[in-house]
Amino acid sequence: MSLTEYLIRSSALLVIMLLVYLVFLKNRAKHSHSRAYILFSFIISMASPFIQFGNSPTITNIPQYVMEGISINSGEARTATQGLPLSSLVIYYCIILSSFFAFRLLFGLGRILYLRIHFPSYREKSGRIILIPKSKPVFSFFRMIFIHNTLVNTEVHEHEKQHIKLWHSADRLFIALIGIVFWLNPAYWLFKKELERVHEYQADGAVLNRGIERKKYQNLLLSLSMGYPTALPVNQFNKSFIKNRIKMMNKKNNLRKTSWLFALPFVLATVWIMACSHSTPATQQNAEPEATPEQTEKVHDEVDKMPEFPGGQEAMVQFFVDNIKYPEKARKEGIEGKVFVKFTVAKDGKITNVAIQESVSPELDAEAMRVVEMMPDWIPGEKDGKAVAVEITLPVKFALSDKDDK
């Protein structure tokens, strides 16, 4: 499975899980259920592309075939000197932005460490109290509370202690790590915001359950104005969501009776996983094909009609000649050889599961894979009159011209 395919599948599932949450669970389920659902949504979205339920006979018996090789001469192929292809540029910029979010997280953790070291602190039962200037926002991070000394032992202090007790910092750090990869998905940001809301609702509820007067606590929320937003993966006592938090505190518990809907997305996620697992051929379980006449003949017997490139072998050769670019680095270093590219022609003729079976160099491997992935849909193979998936191994020979050798 390619990185692009993984991101598409996991992101699509995350969007579905978000829609289910917004329709059935938001402001309806218990806060603990909402929190568990959001965390489950991230975990199952990341794991689902790798989960499979058993082995399907139609998957493990995919016929394999070694095709006649294609020879590419550097004199015929264009030299790749005009920059990266579009797909590589997209990946390149995604890596840059992911690196930005990773650096942003590390910078935030560094700021927390700086505050911990440079300001006085003392230990109490709930954790360590770091006394920060009044101009800085109050927040907690695991067992550390960063707070001004005038707010110690107040409702604000109690609020942050509840964040610590409920391990909200672990959620925030987990979500921040996921954001390094899923920053492009709008569902990630919406879920992240919802989790922040749930954290505040949980902490508010825990504070009120300790006997603090509701009206007094709500007035305190309205009177405080703390700096927000922050890049830190922390739980911060802030004025954001204040109106929603007060409404939630005043809401009766009757809506929470609908929390049975919490089970619905689990069923949905299971169906999704099963659909993905059965639609993805597990070619890793197949024996690696060898380019021998005996095996080629045996594979021929497994299907009545082999898959075919539109227009036949000559059209495929011309397709490679027209599209392949001999990597400049490989040409300058005198690298040549035969790259064996393995792929599956699915029942609908689409090219899937492209991988390198025998490598020559990273540059030649990448170019061979790029052109194979560009190929149009094939005419699928057939057995007993029905289309079947067939695994193909295609040797692509890169050869330098006499001019390059001199």
State the helical fraction: 40-55%
Number of DSSP strand runs? 14
Biggest sheet architecture: 5 strands, mixed
Distance between the termini: 41 Å
Structure explained in plain terms:
The chain is of the alpha/beta class and 406 residues long. The protein has two domains: 3-54 and 86-274, no CATH class; 58-82 and 287-405, no CATH class. The chain is 50% helix and 16% strand. The protein contains 15 helices and 14 strands. The strands form four sheets. Strands 1, 2, 10, 11 and 14 form a five-stranded mixed beta sheet that branches. Helix 1 (3-25) packs antiparallel against helix 10 and helix 2 packs antiparallel against helix 7 (186-209). It is elongated, with a radius of gyration of 29 Å. 30% of the residues are buried. The model is unreliable at 54-60, 79-84, 225-230 and 280-301 (pLDDT under 50).
How are the secondary structure elements laid out?
Blueprint: H1 3-25, H2 31-47, H3 57-60, E1 64-66, E2 70-73, E3 78-80, H4 86-118, E4 121-124, E5 127-131, E6 139-141, E7 144-147, H5 155-165, H6 168-182, H7 186-209, H8 214-223, E8 235-236, H9 242-250, H10 264-279, H11 293-302, H12 313-323, E9 325-327, H13 328-332, E10 337-345, E11 351-358, H14 362-374, E12 381-383, E13 386-388, E14 390-399, H15 402-405
Parallel strand pairs: 1-14, 2-14, 3-9, 5-7
Antiparallel strand pairs: 4-5, 6-7, 6-8, 10-11, 10-14, 12-13
Keywords:
406 residues, 2 domains
Brief rundown of the structure:
By secondary structure, this protein is an alpha/beta fold. It contains 15 helices and 14 strands.
